Amino acid sequence: MVEKGLGQDIIVDISGLAKHFGEVHAVDGVDMQILQGEILAIVGSNGAGKTTLLRMISGGHSIDRGSLFFQSLDVSRLGLIQRARLGIIYSFQIPALFENLSTLDCLRMALLTREHKTVLFFQTIEKFPLVRKEAEDILDMFQIPKDSCACLLPHGQRKLLDVAMAFALKPRLLLLDEPTSGVSTKEKGQVMDTIMPIIRQTNTTTVIVEHDMEIVTRYSDRVIVMDQGRVLAQGTPQEVLNNPEVGEVLLWR
Predict the structure, then answer these.
(1) For residue 123, what are the CA distances in angstroms to 48, 119, 132, 197?
(2) 206, 34 in Cβ contact below 8 A?
(3) What are the 10-residue block averages of pLDDT along the chain, 253 residues in total?
(4) CA–CA separation, 130 vs 137, rounded Å?
(5) pLDDT the model gives residue 129
(6) Which of 147, 196, 189 has the alpha carbon at shortest distance from 167?
(7) What is the pLDDT of residue 5?
(8) Distance (Å, rounded) from C-alpha 33 to C-alpha 65?
(9) DSSP-derived 3-state class of residue 212
């Protein structure tokens, strides 16, 4: 377990979390806490249970055993939509975009979803000038053009648009599943250098599943290492990198 930092509260408290797929123990008795405002990276070899854990936190996977508290509320049995309404927002490894809409309309759709007004989108979108203004402001923050079709964006900007749409939902807990997956080495830094200042400025608690240890070391406050569905180690990026057991898992499995 992690001790609270100065001025930091525990926003997520997980105890004995488990998820099995037949004989596969994808997540096998995980205990962990997430602190308000921190950027937490979850790392491990392929099959370690990282994405399964992230989806359990979001409500995308049910919990077989254990408990999950979010801001002191037991959300263990709540579904994806219910948790999203509480502010637990998941950004997928493969961007989930409205491919035939413009970037502006993608953001407006996300904002109207937040306001429970999506049924009105195609008939009355122009009746919401404040929604348009907020969408434009978010696109500017993420350095995304307003008049491009989502389907025509380069991969790095597709990632940014997906995160921007998640950000539009005003997350209290933002879950990023491999935000640099499929992005060129050159674009990785650009993507993260765009996302991270926004997260820091808004003090948005963020969990990142990531394979690139350079990204993890540069951008995270704390790291949890998973191996075979369990937490192997946790600490600052430097503490984790200096752990010989962690090095063996990350290098050889």
Answers:
(1) 46, 9, 15, 36
(2) no
(3) 59 97 95 97 93 96 97 96 94 66 89 71 65 94 91 87 92 93 84 95 96 92 96 94 82 49
(4) 10
(5) 79
(6) 196
(7) 46
(8) 17
(9) coil
> What number of residues does the chain have?
253
Distance CA 171, CA 113 (A): 13
From CA 157, how far away is CA 244, in angstroms rounded? Answer: 37
pTM: 0.89
Domains of the chain as residue ranges with CATH: 1-81+212-253 (3.40.50.300)
On whether the CB atoms of residues 207 and 173 are closer than 8 A, the answer is yes
Distance (Å) of CA 128 to CA 119, 121, 174: 13, 10, 26
Which pLDDT does position 252 carry in this prediction? 46
- Backbone dihedral angles phi then psi of residue 14, each to the nearest 5 degrees: -115, 135
Q: Read off φ and ψ for residue 104, nearest 5 degrees.
A: -60, -45
Rg, Å, the chain Cα set = 18
Partners of 177 in beta bridges: 209
- What's the pLDDT score for residue 248? 74
CA torsion angle 172 175 28 8 (round to 10): -40
| d(C-alpha 250, C-alpha 79), whole Å | 32
State the amino acid at position 60 in one-letter form.
G
Closest residue by Cα to residue 125 from 148, 101, 149: 101
C-alpha 113/C-alpha 78 separation (Å) is 19
pLDDT the model gives residue 123: 55
CA distance 49 to 55: 10
Q: What are phi and psi of 108, to 5 degrees?
A: -65, -35
